C-alpha cells in the first residue's frame, strides 16, 4: 500500500483501528501518540476536574497518575495484592469518598486485575473505570480482552512493549456514548472527522482537546506489527512458561516467588519477574547476573513515596504490600528473539546464585 498521507488517520492508521476493533471486540479504537496521551484523553472524556479524586495503585508508571493530576484531580493510592501485584480490589471501597470520580486499574505484567469486582464497585458507586492496559494487549480475563472491560481502555505501543511502534498508544472506547466526543478531543477539540465525512458544513472548534494523533508513519509501522501480533505474543508466552517451569523448584523450596498463574486469565507474556527474600538479596543477585552479562532490573518506585506523589496525591491505608514487594521484585530478560538457550543461561545463573547462597 502506498500513501502520501503522513499527518495521521490515513489508510494505515485506519487499518490499525479496524484490527483493534475486530480483534479485541471494542466499540471504537483510536490510535494516540502514546498510552500517556490515551490516559489524558480518558481523563478529559470522564470530565475529571480540580478537586476530584481518582483511585489507582501506587505500584504503576507515573502516567497512570499524571493524566489525572493534569486535570487538577488528586490520585488516591491503594495497596496491591500480594499474589498478582495488581490493585487490591478489597481496598477500593475504603478509598472512595464523595469526591471520587474514577477507578484506574493497571494490569501489571499483562496479568489482569479482578475486573468483575472492580466493575461491581464502580457500578454501585457511579464511578468511571479506565483500564491502564499498557502492558496487557491480548491478555484476557474471563474470556474478555483487557482494555475492553472498563468504560475506557488505554494501550501502549512503546518500544518496551510486546507490540511496538517506537512511541504510540491507543484509546479503546467501550462506552458508546463517548465515541464522538473522543474523536473531537483527539482532533484538537474540532469536528474535523464529521466535516471530512460530509456530516457538517463547517470545520470548527467545538470542545477542548489536543493533538493526540500519531503520524501515519507510526501507523504504518504499527500495522505491520499487528499483522504479526499473535506470533509475537505466542513467542513471549512460550518464554514466560519456560522461565516458570525452570524456576519452579526454587519457588517450591521457598527461596523465591514467581508470577502467579490464574485459572480465569491468559497473560500475554509481557514480562517475567521473581521476588527475592530481601532487598539486600536482590541487590546481590543483580550483581551476580551482571557479572555474567545478564541484565536484570527492578521496577517501579511506589508513586506514593515519590516527591510528586506526596505533593499531588495521598495514600489510602499504609500500602505495606506495595512497599515490601517493590523492594524485592526483579525483572529477568524477556524479549521476542530470546532462545531456549538464552533462557537456560539466565536460569542457570539464578540457580547458581542460590546454590551458593543457601
Q: What do these coordinates show?
A:
It is a single chain. By secondary structure, this protein is an alpha/beta fold. The protein has 2 domains: 219 residues, Aspartate Aminotransferase, domain 2, CATH 3.40.640; 128 residues, Aspartate Aminotransferase, domain 1 (Alpha-Beta Complex), CATH 3.90.1150. Helix content is 39%, strand content 14%. It is built from 13 helices and 13 strands. The strands form 3 sheets. An 8-stranded mixed β-sheet has the order 1-9-8-5-4-2-3-12, sandwiched between helices. β4, α5 and β5 form a beta-alpha-beta unit. α9 packs parallel to α13. The protein starts with 10 loop residues before the first helix and ends with a helix. The model has no long low-confidence stretch (mean pLDDT 95).
Mean pLDDT: 95
Structural class: alpha/beta
Shape: globular
Number of strands: 13
Task: Tell me the radius of gyration.
Answer: 21 Å
Number of helices: 13
End-to-end distance: 59 Å
What strand line-up does the widest sheet have?
1-9-8-5-4-2-3-12
**Poorly predicted residue ranges:** none
The CATH topology of the largest domain is Aspartate Aminotransferase, domain 2
- The name of the CATH superfamily of the largest domain reads Type I PLP-dependent aspartate aminotransferase-like (Major domain)
Layout of helices and strands:
Layout lengths: L10 H14 L3 E5 L2 H11 L7 E5 L4 H8 L4 E5 L13 H4 L4 E4 L11 H11 L2 E5 L7 E2 L2 E2 L6 E5 L12 E5 L5 H8 L5 H5 L19 H12 L1 H24 L12 E2 L5 E4 L3 H12 L16 H6 L1 E2 L4 H7 L2 E4 L7 H18 L1
Parallel strand pairs: 2-3, 2-4, 3-12, 4-5, 5-8
Antiparallel strand pairs: 1-9, 6-7, 6-10, 8-9, 11-13
Amino acid at each position: 500500500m502506498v500513501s502520501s498521507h503522513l499527518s495521521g488517520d490515513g489508510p494505515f492508521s485506519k487499518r490499525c483501528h479496524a484490527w483493534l476493533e475486530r480483534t479485541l471486540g471494542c466499540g471504537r479504537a483510536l490510535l494516540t501518540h502514546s498510552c500517556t496521551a490515551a490516559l489524558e484523553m480518558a481523563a478529559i472524556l470522564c470530565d475529571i476536574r480540580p478537586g476530584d479524586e481518582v483511585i489507582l495503585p501506587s505500584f504503576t508508571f507515573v502516567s497512570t497518575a499524571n493524566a489525572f493530576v493534569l486535570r487538577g484531580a488528586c490520585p488516591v493510592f491503594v495497596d496491591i495484592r500480594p499474589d498478582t501485584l495488581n490493585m487490591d480490589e478489597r481496598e477500593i471501597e475504603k478509598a472512595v469518598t464523595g469526591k471520587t470520580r474514577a477507578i484506574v486499574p493497571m494490569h501489571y505484567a499483562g496479568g489482569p486485575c479482578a475486573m468483575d469486582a472492580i466493575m461491581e464497585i464502580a457500578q454501585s458507586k457511579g464511578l468511571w473505570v479506565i483500564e491502564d492496559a499498557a502492558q496487557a494487549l491480548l491478555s484476557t480475563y474471563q474470556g474478555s480482552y483487557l482494555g475492553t472491560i472498563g468504560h475506557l481502555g488505554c494501550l501502549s505501543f512503546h518500544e518496551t512493549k510486546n507490540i511496538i511502534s517506537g512511541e504510540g498508544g491507543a484509546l479503546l472506547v467501550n462506552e458508546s456514548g463517548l465515541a464522538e466526543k473522543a474523536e473531537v478531543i483527539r482532533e484538537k477539540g474540532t469536528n474535523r472527522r464529521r466535516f471530512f465525512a460530509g456530516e457538517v458544513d463547517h470545520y470548527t472548534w467545538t470542545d477542548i482537546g489536543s493533538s493526540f494523533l500519531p503520524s501515519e508513519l507510526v501507523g504504518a509501522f504499527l500495522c505491520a506489527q499487528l499483522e504479526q501480533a499473535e506470533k509475537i505474543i505466542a513467542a513471549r508466552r512460550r518464554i514466560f512458561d519456560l522461565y516458570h517451569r525452570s524456576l519452579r523448584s526454587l519457588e517450591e523450596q521457598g527461596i523465591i516467588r514467581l508470577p502467579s498463574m490464574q485459572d480465569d486469565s491468559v497473560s500475554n507474556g509481557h514480562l517475567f519477574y521473581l521476588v527475592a527474600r530481601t532487598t539486600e538479596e536482590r541487590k546481590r543477585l543483580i550483581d551476580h547476573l551482571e557479572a555474567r552479562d545478564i541484565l536484570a532490573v527492578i521496577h517501579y518506585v511506589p508513586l506514593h513515596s515519590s516527591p510528586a506523589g506526596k505533593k499531588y496525591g495521598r495514600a489510602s491505608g499504609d500500602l505495606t504490600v506495595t512497599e515490601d514487594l517493590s523492594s524485592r521484585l526483579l525483572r529477568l530478560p524477556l524479549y521476542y528473539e530470546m532462545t531456549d538457550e538464552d533462557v537456560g543461561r539466565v536460569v542457570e545463573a539464578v540457580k547458581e546464585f542460590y546454590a551458593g547462597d543457601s
